[in-house]
## 1
Amino acid sequence: MVANSFTEAFLKSGDVVLLGEMEHHSNIVPWQLACKKRGVKIKKLNLKNNGTVDLKMLKESIVEGVKLIACQHISNVTGLQNDIEEIVRICKKNNIYTFIDGAQAIAHQEVDVQNIDCDFYCFSGHKCFGPTGTGVLYGKQELLNAMPPYMGGGEMIESVSLKTSSWNRLPYKFEAGTPNIAGFIGLGQAFLYLKKIGLNEIQKLEKELSIVLYNEIKKINNIIIYSENEGGVPICTFNIKGLHGYDLGALLNEQGVCVRTGHLCAQPSTHLLNTNSFIRASLCFYNTKEEIYSFIERLKRANQILSK
Amino acid sequence: MTLKEREQEIIADFNFFHEWDEKYEYIISLGKELSPMEPGLKSVKNLIKGCQSNVWLSSYFKNKKVVFCADSDALITKGLVALLLKIFSDAPAKEIALFELSFVKSIGLDRHLSMNRSNGLVKMIEKIKKISLNYLKE
């Protein structure tokens, strides 16, 4: 929605949107679609070797024509966090709009959009235990007011005649059609659930799990770890040298362990991290240390079968 | 042997295995027994798109039969292709095009059909059938 409506209102042919190779497809493809329609260029933002934004490289990328950066808060590949406050500060100083993909951050730590001071922040409901098909967008009021509606019909109208229509106020202007009422009641409950446990408590629990996960996985022979995120968001993205991720994933699956394999919906990141595919063990505060030990044992078993 | 008989033979082979790991070890061993594919045949043209692992499939037509050759960079995928080739390779094109596989489910590998949208077993079967149909048209 932002890619379409923001681009229409604020960008013109020849303008530039900055994107890094670690972004999820959801923060690449909508920009490609919208930018193509308006002749806006997409420029690669060079990143550090670990996939995070290098503030010096960011400053160097800010050249004439750059109008917006679309950037992730936390990577779904590595779990590493960008210094989002500083990125926003640098961009603001240079009159560049900021769109932050917070899908991987929102359930793992407290996020204060006013403190970050970004122009847009979004996340999907299912990443914080809500129903699929829900999501949240935060945007600066003056920008949202200046943006045209994305879709038409339903509560988004103020008045309609055959010749012209006018729009309802925010947020209704962007809520065309019949809302996903049941979904959003579910999302509200998911927020209450998170609030009840407390994001600080979640962060504490996940830090402990992450330390155990990395301690154990590092002991596996020929392990290649892409994330180096010990003590952070409890995910570990890895490969075992000489083995295909698909094979390991299939054998873990047979043993009742779900891991994600492949490009993790972030194909450009495979180029940056020099691989064809990844395996990601993704934990959450409700997992236990025993489950980590069990995962490691099953990973060893899978490794053993494939190495025969 | 008809394709149905070939398929029954595979199902009978898998009936010997009671543990999941034995089944996979067998699949992997079948992959390792596949005749090596000439490097030149591992081309973009022969690559089956949409698989998580790379799968190459080539074929030739001899005595009204289609002979397939395949390889993959993943061991389980290679074993799965080997199973398909056990049924489909060196068989009449018409029979291949018309045959409806049922062994995948009966040997408990159906999760490979649905585990991931980008999993290639369905695509491999489609490609095998498409190649055979093309030979029929020639």
## 2
Amino acid sequence: MISPYIIHLLILIGIYIILSVSLNLILGYTGLLNLGHIALFGIGAYASALLTMNGVPFVISFILAGLIAGVFGFLLVLATRKLKGDYYALATLGFGFVVYSLFLNLTGLTRGPLGIPGIPKPDLFGLIIKSNFSYLIFVFFIALIVVFVIYKIVKSPFGKLLEAMRDDEVGLRVLGKDTRKLKYKTMMISAFFAGIAGSLFAHYISFIDPSSFYISELIFVFTIVIVGGIASIKGSIIAPFVIVLIPETLRFLALPSSIIGPARQIIYALILLLILMYRPRGLFGRIDLE
Amino acid sequence: MALLLQLTINGLIAGSIYALVASGFSLIYGTNRFMHFAHGISVVVAGYIIYTLFTLLGINFFLSFLLTLILSGLFGFLMFRLAYLPLQNRKASNVILLMASIAILILFQNLVQAIFGADVKSLRYLEVGKGLSFFSAVITPLQIVIILTAFVLMICLYLFMKKTKLGRDMRAVADNKELASIVGINDRKISDYSFIIGSILAGIAGILISLEQNLGPAMGTSLIIKGFTGAVIGGINFVPGSIFGSYLLGFAENYGIWFLPSGYKDAIAFVLLFIFLLFRPNGLFGLNWGLR
């Protein structure tokens, strides 16, 4: 059988596949550098954890986690609809910080820096997912659906419109397409999937605190998407394996535990920097990020 | 009344630090037109350099101070030459440069943490000392030093930008890059200098912070957000504006505690940042590049 350690890594990889495929939808296909993606992931995690712990059945809170994140995605587009380029990126980063400080300060709801412990395992209509192995199957089942849906979206005429908007927004408007509506729709879809990834994360780890949704985690997810390649679904499925497994080799180097955490971040930041400098298309990217 | 005065003093101290960060950030943004988010880590690196030289190696304080400034300038220069310049030569967009910059920030933050550990350090050069009572508000001598240093540096920076050839060239590049290169200003050289000068300003901020407060590896992110917010409020590409905006932010944060729990201090900056980016991205006094 597979060792528990491998199962643990595979569950995380499954969650990151959902997260990075949904980020690639907004970043690669729509061309919007949404630095608030990790905040949407966090919103999903908190929403799902708080709902289930207040008696809402898992299946409903799982869907609600996606919907609530989707609502925040809508608000994010509403707020940033006039911004472009690095201003857009920074406004979304600002959104991420606002959400982070709300997690930290709404102590009545989120318990602030103490975090929320004891998040129950998912209960699918009476079938409780207890073992990690069944959780792994559950995560990959969800990931498969998400990848399938996003694959269908990007191959559809709607997906072609998104790519056209990314390449030439004004041109698309001249053709009479409402690009603003496209942005709302895509962001809400992307946010929905980020939200359910958050829910899967919260119920697996069973403890969440604000630090899981901060800027260093953002670098991690962006590294995955950029390494996999912009506008490449295949890349965003393969890259999580690569990016999660690379720092795991550090475990065999017998480094002190105080070094392992920073070393992992250093590796991610270095990979991201080097990819941006020398191979901006990543492994399977089809276009350069602009 | 005492509380109001105390909050004003605290706002002035915070604003001074933010202004040092923001002025360097704005200088770099103005001449290079991309967001050097890793500017925050220059502050932290400078703090740890002087900690190493002075506290660990026991070098004389003023020599350590001087060496730290030189190394800070070098650090900024190398960031530009080794990371940003190759990206610019490849015609990478501003968004790519911003992401690279965030990656640099995280890279050095964790490098510092791996070398020095996550616990906070302090310089222990000057005793923090007993606060002076000043109309029933308290201010320590060191805090007076911070306020004065920032004030003097801002005047020097102003004179430098107004009176020297290099300063005028920098303003010309910030105002209109194409026109500046037509009249023969070498914008590569200007970029080099803006990174060196900006990073030295960040270095001074780092030294002052390490004198007065504790030094931690994760400070860079929050400092650059504060400096950046100050810059956005005042006008991100206009150095005097960003200094003004930084003091405004310092006051807004500290007066905000009247109304909000103190945990929200950081949130005030984020909310202000968000509001300004949305409604007034050129800030109160910024040059309009028609960027948005």
